[in-house]
Amino acid sequence: MRILFLAAEAAPLAKVGGLGDVAGALPAALAALGHDVRVALPFYGLIDRARFKPQPAARLTVPHVGGDQTARVSVVRHGGILFYLIAGPPIPRARRVYGVSLAEDGPKFIFYALAALGLCRALGWAPDVLHANDAHTGPAVYWLATDGARDPFFRAIASVFTIHNLLYMSPGAGPYLRAYGLAPSDAPLLPDWARDSLMGLGLAHADVVNTVSPTYARETLTPEGGLGFEGLLWARQAAGEYSGILNGLDLAAWDPARDRALKARYDAARLEGRVINKRALQRALGLPAAPRAPLVGMVARLDGQKGLDIAVPAVRALLAARPEAQAVFLGTGAAALEAQLRELARDFPRQARAALRFDAELARQIYGGAELVLVPSRFEPCGLSQMIALRYGAVPVVRRTGGLADTVIDASQPRQGNGFVFADYNSSALLRALQRALALYQAPSRWQALQRRGLRQAPRFGWEHSARAYLALYQQAITQRKEAVDRLAGTITDLPGPG
Q1: N or C: which end of the chain has fewer CB within 10 A?
Q2: Residues 389-426: tens digit of each pLDDT
Q3: Which domains are assigned to the chain?
Q4: Is the pTM of this model over 0.70?
Q5: Are 266 and 274 in contact (CB under 8 A)?
């Protein structure tokens, strides 16, 4: 199967968050199953040209009301995957993936999406499936379903649109769409406000739609989770065109038995390595080297989604009640949240640390040395932190939402439990979950059994399982596209001839 994968970011070339992890790992997993997968993304200024050595691949024009714009495409082969990097006038050379406003990102991503399709024609390579991810790629899905449906080169290409986070929907892009010859959508189930939403274009016009966990798919069917798209998604689900596929974890990239960032490597049979890692982590952070002090860690982007507003009060209460407990937060983001973490560290100088930066090595050391990893998200389409925690034998404490609910089973369930789960979004509910966790921590044999269970369950979340689910979804989309093409051909055939 030939698959064109569109995403605004893809590890290791350009990565900001979980989308970048998916766009780096899923194509590789599909290729390992024998498929021709190619990834296209904008050629950002932050992409390391010296490391990846991009080579010229094609030049093509993208129609624009102000005059055709030239797209210059370079190619990188990495990990057996071809990455096409698209440069052109609307794509700034700034060292960032996402801009500060729709005025930058609207033209940038519309140009990129249309250029990616034009590249297929320039290369003479027609994919069987376009796999488009999040709002940035919605214009490609929309063009394929409208102008592309009348073009013999494109009309048989099926489209799959994956929601990674429905919150980022890019509404109000009408002026930028029109500049590239695209009118706002007239799809009947799109709310009026969403007719020029880049997310809405993908949701309404893809052959099939999915999101990144089964629970998040159900949550988006509610007014709270659907954010105005719930009616459209209900209709697509009723037609068998909307589902959830859990994201995977790159088991080779995240492996405590081989992780060079750790002081000691280990696996489920050799948990003593975690004791060495904890001591090294405490030393690096300037915390007391207390082997039995429960150490709580959180690695997250600091924004309202990730639950810092309930995590900080809960951890503050825990540290006050348990002077032996320790906590470390790693991440950067909202200034107000950073200030709260600095204050926490000042108030508990022997117990708490706030590392307000991006630090990939320290993140691995937290997973490899902390007893507990917090993921108290307000909502979480899938989540990676809890999977990594399980893979590293750190016990996750999560809110029951999205992919967290699909991966973490409360320790109260014998033989299956692998973490601690709470439901209500407030600091009291999180604190109670932490207290339950620390009560079990006082029984070392039971605690180690919980850690080993997580370590042994984690391989279930490898990308191969998810890749096979996507292949089934691709086949469904291909079938639906073929039926639509046949219907269109039948309609044209049935029309009376001239005279």
Answers
A1: C
A2: 999 999 999 999 999 999 999 999 988 999 999 999 99
A3: 2-248+465-491 (3.40.50.2000), 272-460 (3.40.50.2000)
A4: yes
A5: yes
